[in-house]
Amino acid sequence: MATPTGRPIPLLCPSDQVGRCARCQQPCHRYGVGANPLCQTCRQAVETARQQQKTSPAT
Ligand SMILES: [Zn+2]
Question: Out of the domains of life, which is the source (predicted)?
Answer without folding.
Answer: Bacteria
